[in-house]
Amino acid sequence: MAKQDVKDLDWSNLGFTYRDLPYSYNEEFKDGKWQNGGLTTKSTLTFSEAAEELHYGQEVFEGMKAYRRKDGGINLFRPDMNAKRLNNSAERLVMQTYPEDKFVEAVKAVVKANQEFVPPYGSGGSLYIRPFMVGTEPVVGVTASSTYTFHIYATPVGAYIKGLKPMPYVVSEYDRAAHAGTGQAKTAGNYAASLLAGKKAHDAGYAGELYLDPREHKYIDEFSGANFFGIGKDGKFYTPKSESILPSITKKSMLTIAKDLGLDPTETHIDINDLDQFTEAGAMGTAAVVSPVGSLTYKGNKHVFFSETKPGPVTQKLYDTLFGIQEGDVEDKYGWVVPVEL
Ligand SMILES: *Cc1c(COP(=O)(O)O)cnc(C)c1O
């Protein structure tokens, strides 16, 4: 596959697809230690046919973005949290951890090396960054690998869902993660488990699927790649508390933002039969940013939130605040934004 030429990019129509950029980052773990990685122009990886990750799924990943500021600079958003979460995920899958400060430096190096691919301010696009780690040892029996590859690629993306357009979602009959399973780890297997549910949802005309808690199928868990929030009739911000959801950095940030906006945020069990308690609902995550949920269909009954055509005022405000902080237009009171030195 040829490297992407920056001149061939249409910044206003990037979509959410992979493009092969000039630089990636790669580092190997072997003989009990990380082997001094660095930037590489190689965007393919080579493994044994018996590599652990190919058969037993030892893989963890992160999803981050670099945002172009109005002054031409580039921001990362809370990259230290991604570094921590990668290691939490790795521990759940009995993998090596990667030093957190090195992780942040590696991400910065990839962004700097590919800086011309960070979409312009105001285009709605950003540079999506995908750090990941895989177990590479050839194994037949099920054991944790003793060798790993840590790798980062980046690719320019447009808004995951263009504009703040409300989308229809459906409550899935499937689970993406078990109650005491790997739901809190950002790992490939959870996504493999969600593909059929996602295909059925898309085939039926929905933008995506919402999962319920795997134990009782009674409380809202999350979407396949984003956490859920609802704005109650009481004006408060609600988001599910669950052991099988991914601890979203966007969600964590939104709890703080919602508090500052006077929305008295609460993490609690949200009964799927209580949807009429909410005036607005949305999905939140790095890819989704804040996306309004127009409707949710559960057991054949479609529940419409604020509107199927326009975002609710609170959802809009949450989006404007979060994206404003990320792009550097809204004051960063908590030191979340990390500029990349170019
Ligand atoms: C990555 C992810 C999210 C969003 O997490 P952020 O840190 O906000 O990007 C939510 N749910 C799942 C299942 C995820 O994999």
TrEMBL record:
It is an enzyme of class 2 (transferase). It catalyses: L-leucine + 2-oxoglutarate = 4-methyl-2-oxopentanoate + L-glutamate; L-valine + 2-oxoglutarate = 3-methyl-2-oxobutanoate + L-glutamate; L-isoleucine + 2-oxoglutarate = (S)-3-methyl-2-oxopentanoate + L-glutamate. Its EC number is 2.6.1.42. Its cofactor is pyridoxal 5'-phosphate. Pfam families: Aminotran_4 (PF01063). GO terms for biological process: isoleucine biosynthetic process; L-leucine biosynthetic process; L-valine biosynthetic process. This is Branched-chain-amino-acid aminotransferase. The lineage of its organism: Bacteria, Bacillati, Bacillota, Bacilli, Lactobacillales.
